[in-house]
Amino acid sequence: MAPPRVIVVAPSALQPVPAVVALLFAAYSFGGIFGEIYWGRLSDRLGRKHILIVTTACAAVSYLAFAYATTFWLALTIRVVTGMFSGTVGVCQSYIADVTQPEQRARSIGFLGAALNLGFVIGPAIGGLLAAPERGLPGFRLPIMVSAAIAAVAALWCAFVLRESHAPGAARPLPRWGEAFAMVAANPLLARLFAIAFIGIGAFASMEAVFGLWTEHNFGWTTHEVGLTFIAVGATGFLVQVLLIGRATKRFGEARVIVTGLAVLLSSMVLQPVIRLPVAAVALMSLLMAGHSIAFPSTGALISRSTNPQLQGSINGLLMASNALARILLPPLVGLIYTAGPDLPYYVCAGIVGLALLLGLQVVTLRDNEARAPKAAVT
Question: How many domains is the chain partitioned into structurally?
Fold first, then answer.
């Protein structure tokens, strides 16, 4: 699993301007797209444990290389490689699918999401404490090396503690490259769930991207107020994923929980520019996270339940790659929309989440039909 992220700055002769830092982060996500597809597919044949040992160990090495890169282009290349070795969330989700009962899967995937959210809060905080900007670019090597150490510890934990959940078999062929795509395209339920995840996660990432600009424009907020808001947002996501998802999916089923989460997302997007108050901005951003934390672990769980066990890695890897692509493509487009009017991103994203909500209602119908089919056969 990828270690918690810390602040990273281009270790080159260039100054760490925002565009350079943004490009380095985009390079990490770009590498993650290919990593998710490749490692997920390979884990279906070789097992999850072997893949996690190799990828986390290689991620540790790539972090060390990044800390001492001498040029920007070398640093950018290393970030792509690091992203590829860190693109193992799909493998981790497949591991969860291997060791949990279908009815417990949404809860377990919610725990995974909570762990990731916690890492996204703690990682930048550690990076900020350990960095020494007054020393120039060398002052940022320590947090990068701490990332390497965390990845190394994760590799050792995978090697000596983690048990294999999907034992490799000599006769088990490697899934064909197009097999996961074909399965998703041919399955009406999976196709809709993938579209929901792509739209919803891209829209959520876009709201995160413009929130600081929008609050600065409306309230004069600085990074201090925005940072405190995201602490509350992260805490909300953590609590929802730990305490709520398991109970909700057990009572109502994943499909209806997905629809509820999308409705919460849409409502928070529409209300933000309508209410336009500082307190409401914090509350509605937290509500946005709550909707995200309800809908998308449930989406992943339902995808897993609808997937052949021998293709869990391939399908989950494709899902994580699709999600990463949404986080790369949609926020810049919404940023362009922001230049036409600060409130427009909220209404545009609400509109596309409305499309996802319609797909979610179709998912409910498909699941209800699947549930009725065995009863009709018995009758």
Answer: 2
